[in-house]
Amino acid sequence: MPLSTQDNGLRFSAYTYNQNLVWKGNLETISFEQQAIKNKLLLLDKPCYIVKIAGKIGVTNEGYLSPAENSTTSQLELIASLAPISLQQLGDPSFLSCYGVKYAYMTGAMAGGIASEELVIALGKEKILGSFGAGGLPPERIEAAIQKIQQALPNGPYAFNLIHSPNDMAIERRAVDLYLKYGVKVVEASAFLDLTPNIVYYRVAGLSLNAANQIEIKNKVIAKISRREVASKFMQPAPAKLVKELVEQKLITELQARLAEQVPMADDITVEADSGGHTDNRPLICLLPSLIALRDEIQAQYHYLQPIRVGAAGGIATPESALAAFMMGAAYVVTGSVNQACVESGACEHTKKLLAQAEMADVTMAPAGDMFEMGVKVQVLKRGTMFPMRAQKLYELYRTYNSIEEIPTAEREKLEKQVFRKTIAEAWEGTAAYLSQKNPEKLGKAVNNPKLKMAVIFKWYLGLSSRWSTAGEKGREVDYQIWCGPAMGSFNDWVRGSYLAEPQNRTVVDVADQIMKGAAFSYRIQNLKIQGLQIPDYYTQYRPEVCQ
């Protein structure tokens, strides 16, 4: 057969060569040109054979492998081979069967409805799990979201977020009551510092025995965690003390209490590394192996019939990052920040444009509105907004002074003019009106506690800043609080020059498909490299292309 004289760049490390197998097939199917080789590497559902003929390396998807015969001599040599790979092979297959999904991939909840009904429904229709961002939303808004999502996805898959609210446990309880009322079967628990009666109630209330006398877990929990000590609590059965209290309150039965001793608090632990919003900025490469090892220790102790799966989140934005997580043992991957710039996101158009322009260094830590007094911080976008600087100033004032009145007059005037854009008295009036409806007990405490009063006034700004970002509040763009991790910048680097560069072209399903397909392709490339094939960068880079 005629061979091209053009160098395609492929080389081979001969010391790894194995002659146990030979390739047999039609020589006409072997490609030697660069583009043709790249196209064959991209055919993931077909095997891939790397052969050498007359000193030239080529690639084919056709033919078959056969044991080498000692008496046979041929000019054609088999250098490397790959089996077909499907996207379903990445991660733990039990994740797919448990949630009825096609990929070991899900999208995490982004509070305030940024992970919107539209986002969850779009994913669910394609059998991809998405978690609705219920954090910070009033009960009536969560209830409306449940009804809308259940109507569109009567058989799932979907999840709802349950965010820990240490300063107002009633918020947690109202969400749990709604989830139990409507039969929400999957909850993503996030920002928990410890187990609470509410998450235990949700979990244990879904336990029962089936006809075969086996435990059925109807209320599944995916716990998003970044600390080993917290992960340990979700990996073990519910605390006996909390379970006993639920029995005494007649919220669960004696049978459910006994069953709770035999199952962990969570079906899945999402290891949350350096992510947007609440984060400990942990590196995934350190955190994931640690929590997988912890899971193995606890499994050896309790012998659960279904071992807890451990997934990865925080920094998952490209095929390479997803594959890295899978190769480290992640049962599934979770994307977050990258979905905010998608069409279905609840963020406003201005926010989506800022996110689509973000680079990895364009994020910083700022005081969290929900845990302000505790000094907890969230990771946010700093490019195009002054929120991080202004929020930090509020926290410094809170730490320094015991009341609004103690703050120097010049500083108070700056707050009123630059941050609040109204008098402190007016800000307090609005805060008091809100608390009188939502949390009268806290209002009563704030009236008699100057330090707490200052905190709730400052939290008025912190709370509204995230809502301004989702609602697209005109004139407040520089105050938008946009939760974002470095993954956003990594994603933007990857899609630059492709159809996904513009936010109006980004759909959550496309993003999921491209990341997973790219991860499978990257696995194929790395596998060939391990077999000794030296591959130029031209062949190794996966770029998003519009699906035909």
From TrEMBL:
<keyword id="KW-0560">Oxidoreductase</keyword>
<feature type="domain" description="Fatty acid synthase subunit PfaD N-terminal">
    <location>
        <begin position="23"/>
        <end position="84"/>
    </location>
</feature>
<dbReference type="InterPro" id="IPR013785">
    <property type="entry name" value="Aldolase_TIM"/>
</dbReference>
<dbReference type="InterPro" id="IPR049489">
    <property type="entry name" value="FabD-like_helical_ins"/>
</dbReference>
<dbReference type="Pfam" id="PF18328">
    <property type="entry name" value="PfaD_N"/>
</dbReference>
<dbReference type="Pfam" id="PF03060">
    <property type="entry name" value="NMO"/>
</dbReference>
<dbReference type="InterPro" id="IPR014179">
    <property type="entry name" value="PfaD-like_TIM-barrel"/>
</dbReference>
<dbReference type="InterPro" id="IPR040981">
    <property type="entry name" value="PfaD_N"/>
</dbReference>
<dbReference type="Pfam" id="PF21607">
    <property type="entry name" value="FabD_helical_ins"/>
</dbReference>
<feature type="domain" description="[Acyl-carrier-protein] S-malonyltransferase-like inserted helical">
    <location>
        <begin position="401"/>
        <end position="480"/>
    </location>
</feature>
<protein>
    <submittedName>
        <fullName>2-nitropropane dioxygenase</fullName>
    </submittedName>
</protein>
<dbReference type="GO" id="GO:0051213">
    <property type="term" value="F:dioxygenase activity"/>
</dbReference>
<keyword id="KW-0223">Dioxygenase</keyword>
